[in-house]
Amino acid sequence: MFNAVKAVAYPTIPVVFVSSVRDNRWPLHDTMGLAVTDLKGETRTETTVERTDSGKLDSFMLGKEKLPAERTRSVEAVLKTFQRDSGKNYGIKVQSNNYAVYSGSSDAGAAALVAALNELFGTDYPIARIAELGNMISESAIRSVYGGLNIMVVEGIGAPYGRQLASPEDLKDVRIFAMGFNYESRVSAEEIFQLTRGSPFYEYRLRMVPQWIAKIKLGLMNKDWNLVFSVAEENCANAHYLIESSGKRCRRKEMMNAVIDIEEIRASGLPVYWTAGGGKVINAISWGKDAEKVLAELKKRGQPVVEYKIAPGAKVVEKK
């Protein structure tokens, strides 16, 4: 029996965007994503869960701030699940800290939390159950639970379920150059969901999702990174079109300039595509020997690049 457990998880970037969710926060369609960290592995979320005798969620601090009410209710529901399945009526205090995270922190926080709770309550859940509970808190927490490049399947035989499609080792030739911008605010997830659902082109997006996913799987099978990341960019651009054509600017000037730079670098013959995450980050994705040239071009154009690598899934790092 432990009094406290600390877990770590890594932030995420979308490959196939979550464009809307159900009432239980499960996505309306299949999605894909990547878990990432900086080259030293310091970009991460650490969450410590301390056991109490209260039988309830005593507190949840994100750094020095309280967890928003909507997320608090989700955490309380997840806590009740652990209490019921374990037969242990522990209360908890939670402290979660982000380190150099620009995007995907809610996914990482949810993944680290459920990993820590699984250890604290001794429930020994399989990874699929941990991912399911994480997604009750953040709609794409599965990305941080599994790590690597992963998929969440919500339709078809056996759904819903998650799976890692490519490990960090499988993706070792892929390099991610993140450009983060310190905007005070961003378009919230709820606004994104409302705007995309309200677009007259939303049904087209839903029809395209299976095709995008099939192409990405084919690219992964053949290690055809051009196919994988060109489709990821197409998916991202489509999501932004739905949002922005509905009247809300989600890519601000600096982000648009980064996108233009990436597309111009690609037009010069270098392999690079972009995705966006969190309303504050543009990610340039390249691979192989030409990736260094892409990095040099981005720096030459004055972009604030931080290099990321593909990260593993959530894990417990301390018990006491």
Describe the 3D structure.
This protein has about 325 residues and is an alpha+beta fold. It folds into two domains: about 5-170 and about 310-320, Ribosomal Protein S5, domain 2 (2-Layer Sandwich), CATH 3.30.230.10; about 175-310, Alpha-Beta Plaits (2-Layer Sandwich), CATH 3.30.70. Helix content is about 40%, strand content about 25%. The strands form two sheets. Strands 2, 3, 8, 9, 10, 11, 12 and 13 form an eight-stranded antiparallel beta sheet that branches. Strands 6-5-7-4-1-14 form a six-stranded mixed beta sheet. Strand 5 and strand 6 (about 65) form a beta hairpin. Helix 2 crosses helix 3 (about 125-135). The radius of gyration is 19 Å and the shape is globular.
Q: Briefly note the CATH topology name of the largest domain.
A: Ribosomal Protein S5, domain 2
The unreliable regions are: none
In round numbers, the mean pLDDT is 89
Give the percentage of residues in beta strands. Answer: 25-35%
* Tally of discrete structural domains: 2
- What characterizes the major β-sheet? 8 strands, antiparallel
N/C terminus separation: 9 Å
| CATH architecture title of the largest domain | 2-Layer Sandwich
Structural class: alpha+beta
How would you sum up the global shape? globular
Question: How helical, in percent, are the residues?
Answer: 25-40%
